[in-house]
Write a structure and sequence with these properties.
This protein folds into 3 domains: 125 residues, no CATH class; 122 residues, no CATH class; 150 residues, no CATH class. The protein is 40% helix and 10% strand. It has 16 helices and 13 strands. The longest helix is centred in the middle third of the chain and has 19 residues. The radius of gyration is 24 Å and the shape is flat.
C-alpha cells in the first residue's frame, strides 16, 4: 500500500465504534496489511510474529476482521497479560516507577480485572483481589508428585498441575506467592490459575479498610510504609491523573486541613509556605485524610489499630489514626488529625477541569475511591498511557490528542480496560 491510500478495510464490518472508525479510516498510511498484522501482534503481546502468525492475521486484516484479529491475539497469547499488562501496571505499584518490580497482589488484581472485563473503575474501591489458586498440598492430597512431599506437613503450598508447580499460599506479610508464580511463568491469562477472590478473606478482616487497590498489600508497601501516607494521593495523581503534585499547586485554596507537621516558615520565610508549599498541601492534606488509618509494619498492612511507645517505653494503644500522622509538630496550630474524614477542595478553581466525581467529602479510602472512580481525568490519563504503550509514542499531534479523547470517551462508556488496549492498538497500526 503506498502513501496516500486510505485504510478502508477497517470500515467494512463496522466493528469499531463510529468515532474510532472515523479516526482510523482517516489516517493516511504506508503500512500494508501484513505490516499492520505484525504491528498489531507485537503492540498487544510484546512479541514478534513468526511467519505462520503473520500469515494468519494478515488474512484477517484483508478480510476486514481486524478487531476480531485483535481480540484473538489478546485471548490466545499470554504475552498480553504476562508482558504488556504486567509492564503497564507495575510502574504504578512502586515509587521508582520501574517495570522491573515483581508481581504483587495490586498488579495481579489490575491484570485480573482487565482480563475478566470487569468494570475497571471498581479497582479504586471494591472488595476485589486476584491471587493464584491450586490444590492445597496436605498429607491427604493425592495426585501430587512426591517431589513436593516436603510441603505436606505445613500446608503452605498450592499445587498447580498444569504447570507442575507448587507456589506459596497467600501471605499478608509476604509477597512470595506472586514472586514465585512470576518466576515459574504461570500464565495470568489462565482463569484456573489466577482467580478472583475477596480482600477481606486475605488482606484484612476489617470491612472498613477495604478500598480496592488502596487496601492491597502491594499498594500499602509502596505508599504507606514510610512518610505520612501523603504518597498515596501523590502517586494516585501521578499514575491515574497523569499529574505531578506541582501541576496541582493552587495557592488560593484555604489551608485549614494542612497538618501540623508542615512548617509554615521553611527556611525562616513565611513567603515560601504561602507562595508554594500551601498550594499542594492545602488540597493534598484535605484529601489525604482518607488514608490516615493505614500503615505498613512488619511486612503487613495495618488498619485502625495502632500501638506506640510511651515515655516509659511501654507499648500502648493509640487508636485508629497511625501515630506517624501527628507525630511531628512543626506548627502547633496546624491540623491535628483525629479521623479519616476527607474533603475535596480542588473541585473548584484551577483544578476543576479534572472533572472530579460528584461527592465532595466523606470518610475513608473507599468513599474517596468511589469519587476517584467517577473522575473524568482518570479516563483521559489511562487512555493516554495505553495509547503510549501500544503506539510507542506520546500523543503530541492534534490528531493523536483527538484519538486519545475518543478512546477515553469509549472507556468511560464500558469501563473495559481490555477494549481500551484493543481500540488503541487499532488506531495506530497504520503508522
Amino acid at each position: 500500500m503506498t502513501k496516500g491510500v486510505r485504510v478502508v478495510f477497517i470500515k467494512k464490518k463496522q466493528l469499531l465504534p463510529l468515532t474510532l472508525l472515523l479516526l482510523a479510516s482517516s489516517v493516511e498510511v504506508q503500512a500494508g496489511p501484513r505490516d499492520q498484522a505484525k504491528k498489531l501482534y507485537s503492540s498487544l503481546t510484546g512479541n514478534t510474529a513468526n511467519k505462520a502468525i503473520a500469515d494468519k492475521y494478515e488474512k484477517m486484516v484483508k478480510d476486514g476482521k481486524i478487531k476480531a484479529a485483535a481480540k484473538e491475539i489478546v485471548e490466545s497469547n499470554q504475552g498480553f497479560y504476562n508482558v504488556t499488562l504486567k509492564n503497564f501496571f507495575t510502574p504504578m505499584s512502586n515509587e521508582d516507577g520501574t517495570q522491573f518490580a515483581p508481581l504483587n497482589d495490586m498488579t495481579a488484581t489490575l491484570i485480573g480485572v482487565t482480563r475478566d472485563e470487569i468494570d475497571f473503575f471498581r479497582v479504586f474501591w471494591d472488595n476485589i483481589l486476584y491471587q493464584f489458586d491450586g490444590q492445597l498440598i496436605t498429607n491427604s492430597a493425592s495426585g501430587i508428585p512426591s517431589k513436593f512431599d516436603k510441603y505436606k506437613a505445613t500446608n503452605d503450598r498450592l499445587y498447580l498441575s498444569k504447570y507442575d508447580a507448587a507456589i506459596p499460599i497467600y501471605n499478608r506479610t509476604k509477597n512470595n506467592m506472586y514472586e514465585e508464580a512470576e518466576k515459574m511463568n504461570i500464565s495470568y491469562s489462565d482463569t484456573s490459575a489466577l482467580v478472583q477472590t475477596q480482600q477481606n478473606t486475605y488482606t484484612t478482616r476489617n470491612e472498613a479498610a477495604i478500598a480496592g487497590i488502596f487496601s492491597t498489600r502491594g499498594w500499602a508497601k509502596a505508599y504507606y510504609e514510610a512518610g505520612t501516607n501523603r504518597a498515596s494521593f501523590a502517586y494516585f495523581a501521578k499514575n491515574f491523573l497523569c499529574l505531578e503534585m506541582e501541576e496541582l499547586n493552587d495557592t488560593t485554596i484555604p489551608d485549614f486541613r494542612v497538618r501540623r507537621d508542615v512548617d509554615r516558615a521553611p527556611g525562616g520565610k513565611t513567603e515560601t509556605y504561602k507562595t508554594f508549599c500551601v498550594g499542594c498541601h492545602a488540597g493534598q492534606d484535605a484529601l489525604g485524610g482518607a488514608f490516615v488509618y493505614y500503615d505498613f509494619t512488619s511486612g503487613a498492612m495495618r488498619y485502625a489499630e495502632h500501638e506506640d511507645v510511651d515515655e516509659n517505653g511501654d507499648i500502648v494503644s493509640v487508636g485508629p489514626v497511625a501515630p506517624k500522622i501527628n507525630k511531628n509538630n512543626m506548627f502547633p496550630d496546624g491540623k491535628i488529625t483525629i479521623s479519616d474524614s476527607w474533603i475535596n477542595l480542588w473541585n473548584e478553581g484551577q483544578n476543576a477541569y479534572i472533572g472530579w466525581g460528584e461527592t465532595t467529602s466523606g470518610n475513608g479510602a473507599k468513599s474517596l475511591g468511589k469519587m476517584f472512580a467517577e473522575t473524568k481525568q482518570v479516563r483521559s490519563c489511562l487512555a493516554k498511557q495505553v495509547f503510549e504503550s501500544v503506539c510507542y509514542r506520546t500523543p503530541s499531534s492534534e490528531e493523536d490528542k483527538r484519538t486519545v479523547e475518543v478512546l477515553a470517551e469509549e472507556f468511560d462508556k464500558d469501563g473495559n480496560m481490555k477494549n481500551l488496549f484493543i481500540n488503541a492498538a487499532l488506531t495506530c497500526i497504520g503508522d
